[in-house]
Design a protein that fits this description.
Layout lengths: L23 H8 L23 H11 L5 E8 L5 E7 L8 E7 L6 H16 L1 H7 L2 E6 L4 H6 L20 H13 L3 E8 L14 E3 L3 E3 L9 H21 L4 E3 L1 E4 L6 E4 L7 H7 L3 E8 L8 H21 L1 H16 L5 E18 L4 E22 L4 E4 L4 H9 L5 E2 L4 E15 L10 E14 L4 E4 L5 H8 L20 E7 L3
Parallel strand pairs: 3-4, 3-5, 5-11, 7-8, 10-13
Antiparallel strand pairs: 1-2, 2-4, 6-12, 7-11, 9-10, 12-13, 14-18, 14-19, 15-18, 16-17, 16-19
C-alpha cells in the first residue's frame, strides 16, 4: 500500500550504527505516543483496516454530517481526474457581525493528518456546546482536501504535477485558480492552512550526534513579507502562534517556528518563517486576512502516529478558533485597518528584501539515544525580521499593455480589479527597461525562472484603447505590487507570466499620479 511507511531506517544509516538495528516505528511510538482517552471519529481513524479512507467513504462521511442544518456541503469545482472537490461551511445560519474563518488542509496531497485534523474538528464543532458557542460569533469555511487528486494518490503534487502551494500567483494549474477563487469569494477575516512536514530527514547535528531528525510535533509559519501590513503580521503571532503554542504545551506536545535547513558555507543555517507570496501563509495575508500556517510532523509516516498527528492538528485548530472568538472584535478592527491602509496607499513597495540573521537554540531528536538534543546558537535567517534591499514608492496604478492577458487573468483571480481603457489616453509614467536578464539553468514547476534588473525612467506615453489599468486604491492591491514589480522574486516576470527581454521596455508601467 503506497501510504505505509517503511519502518526500518537502517538502510539510511551508516553500517555498524547502534541505531541501524532499531525499527524507526519503535522510535516513533516511544517518543511520540498516541494520546490516551481520545475518541477519533474521522473517515480514516474509524476504519478497522490499516489503510486510508477512499473518496467514496470520505464523501459519505461528509454527507452524513451535512444532515445537520449547521453544515452546508458544496463543491468548488472538479479536478483533472474528474472528482468534485468538497468544501463546507459550519454556521448556525444567523446573520450579524460574524467572523469569517477559512481552514484548509492537504494542499500537498501526501499530508493526510491535515485533513484528518479538520474532520475531527468538524465533529467537535457540530457535537459540542463549545462548538455551538463558537458558531454564534463565526462562520467556519473548511476545504479539507485542497489537492484532492494528490491526496488520493498520496502525492505532494496535483495530477498535473504542480505543487499547488507554489502556484498561488502564477496559476499554472487550473486547480490553483479554483482554490483561490473559492477563497476570494469567502474573503475571510482569518485564514489558516494545515500541512505536514517530513520528520525523518537525517541531520548531522555535531560529532556527538551525527544522526538526528526533526523533533517537534508542530511547526508554525507566520508571514514576514513586508508588503503585508504590519498590523496583520503582528496579530498572527500574538493571536495565533502564542495561543497555539500554549495549547500544545498543555498536552505535552512540542512546537517551534517552521524552518528549512541548508549549509551554504558549511554551517547549518535555518530559514525560518514565511516570505513568499507563492505560499498560502503570505498569500492569505496579502488579501487582508490574519493568516497562519501550521505544519504537523508526518510526511512519510503513513498511518504511523496518525492519531497523535490528528490530535495535534485539532488542538491547534481549536486554539485558533477560541482565540478568534475571544478577540473577534479586535480581529475585525485589525482587518479593517489593514485593508483601509492598503486602499489609502500608505506603504512603499518592498521589491527585494532579505531575512535578518540571528542565533537560536533548536531541538533535534537523537535517533540512537531516542532523546531530544538541543543545539545552541544555530544560525537562523528569520523572515519575520526582513530587511529591505530594493524599495519603490507605491504608484497610483499600473498600466499593462493589451498583450498581458494572462497577467490580467491572474490578477483577477487574486481579487484585483482591473479596468480597460475605452479610449486612448496619455499619461506621465515610469517605465522599466531591462538592463540584465538571467534565466535559470534548470526548470522549476515546468518553467525556467527569470531574474532581471531594470532601469526606471519617467516618460510621457500614449496608451491605446484596450490597455489595462490596475488602480491601487483597492483592498487587494498588495497582490498587485508583489507580482508586478519586475525584480520581485515571486513576480510575474520571474514566473514567465510576463516575458522580459534584455534591452527592451517591459509592457508594465507605473502611473505615479492619476
Amino acid at each position: 500500500m503506497n501510504r505505509l511507511f517503511n519502518t526500518v531506517l537502517s538502510v539510511l544509516l551508516a553500517a555498524g550504527s547502534a541505531w541501524a538495528q532499531v525499527p524507526y516505528a519503535d522510535l516513533q511510538r516511544k517518543v511520540y505516543p498516541d494520546p490516551e482517552g481520545v475518541t477519533f471519529t474521522t473517515p480514516t481513524l474509524t476504519l478497522s483496516e490499516d489503510r486510508f479512507a477512499t473518496y467514496e467513504e470520505i464523501m459519505a462521511w461528509l454527507e452524513a454530517r451535512a444532515e445537520d442544518a449547521r453544515m452546508t456541503l458544496t463543491t468548488i469545482g472538479t479536478t483533472t481526474k474528474g472528482r468534485a472537490v468538497p468544501m463546507y461551511c459550519l454556521s448556525n445560519g444567523r446573520s450579524g457581525r460574524k467572523l469569517k474563518v477559512w481552514l484548509q488542509g492537504a494542499i500537498h496531497g501526501n499530508e493526510p493528518a491535515a485533513a484528518e485534523a479538520l474532520f475531527q474538528l468538524t465533529d467537535y464543532v457540530l457535537g459540542s456546546e463549545d462548538g455551538a458557542r463558537l458558531l454564534k460569533r463565526m462562520d467556519i469555511y473548511i476545504l479539507p482536501m485542497a489537492n484532492l487528486d494528490g491526496y488520493l494518490a498520496d502525492k505532494r503534487v496535483s495530477a498535473d504535477s504542480f505543487d499547488l502551494n507554489r502556484d498561488q500567483t502564477k496559476f499554472a494549474d487550473p486547480q490553483s485558480v479554483m482554490i483561490k477563487r473559492a477563497f476570494m469569494a469567502v474573503n475571510p477575516d482569518v485564514a489558516v492552512d494545515f500541512h505536514e512536514f517530513q520528520p525523518n530527514r537525517l541531520v548531522n547535528v555535531h560529532s556527538e550526534t551525527p544522526n538526528a531528525i526533526l523533533y517537534y510535533d508542530a511547526l508554525f509559519l507566520p508571514t514576514g513579507h513586508p508588503n503585508v501590513p504590519q498590523v496583520l503580521r503582528d496579530a498572527s503571532i500574538r493571536l495565533f502562534e502564542e495561543p497555539c503554542g500554549a495549547a500544545l504545551d498543555a498536552i505535552g506536545y512540542s512546537h517551534f517556528g517552521y524552518f528549512t535547513i541548508s549549509r551554504p558555507d558549511g554551517e547549518m543555517t535555518l530559514t525560518l518563517n514565511a516570505r513568499s507570496p507563492q505560499s498560502s501563509s503570505t498569500s492569505y495575508a496579502l488579501s487582508g486576512a490574519v493568516s497562519f500556517f501550521v505544519e504537523l510532523r508526518g510526511i512519510g509516516l503513513g498511518r504511523l502516529s496518525l492519531a497523535r498527528r490528528t490530535y495535534c492538528g485539532e488542538t491547534v485548530a481549536k486554539a485558533i478558533l477560541e482565540s478568534s472568538y475571544a478577540h473577534r472584535g479586535e480581529i475585525r478592527r485589525i482587518v479593517k485597518k489593514a485593508r483601509r491602509q492598503t486602499v489609502r496607499r500608505k506603504d512603499p513597495v518592498a521589491v527585494l528584501f532579505h531575512s535578518a540573521e540571528k542565533r537560536l537554540p533548536v531541538t533535534f531528536l537523537d535517533v540512537e539515544k531516542a532523546k531530544p538534543v538541543v543545539l545552541e546558537g544555530v544560525r537562523v535567517l528569520d523572515a519575520l525580521e526582513s530587511q529591505p534591499d530594493l524599495v519603490r514608492s507605491r504608484p497610483a496604478a499600473y498600466l499593462l499593455e493589451s498583450s498581458q492577458t494572462k497577467a490580467v487573468e491572474n490578477l483577477r483571480t487574486l481579487g484585483v480589479q482591473v479596468e480597460t481603457l475605452t479610449a486612448p489616453q496619455t499619461y506621465r509614467v515610469e517605465t522599466y527597461r531591462v538592463t540584465q536578464r538571467e534565466e535559470a539553468e534548470k526548470p522549476w514547476e515546468k518553467i525556467r525562472r527569470v531574474t532581471v534588473q531594470t532601469e526606471v525612467a519617467e516618460a510621457e506615453c500614449q496608451f491605446p484603447a484596450g490597455t489595462y489599468l490596475v488602480r491601487l486604491d483597492q483592498e487587494n492591491a498588495n497582490f498587485a505590487v508583489s507580482v508586478l514589480e519586475p525584480e520581485s522574486e515571486n513576480g510575474f516576470v520571474s514566473f514567465r507570466v510576463t516575458e522580459a527581454r534584455e534591452g527592451e521596455t517591459l509592457p508594465i508601467y507605473r502611473l505615479i499620479k492619476y
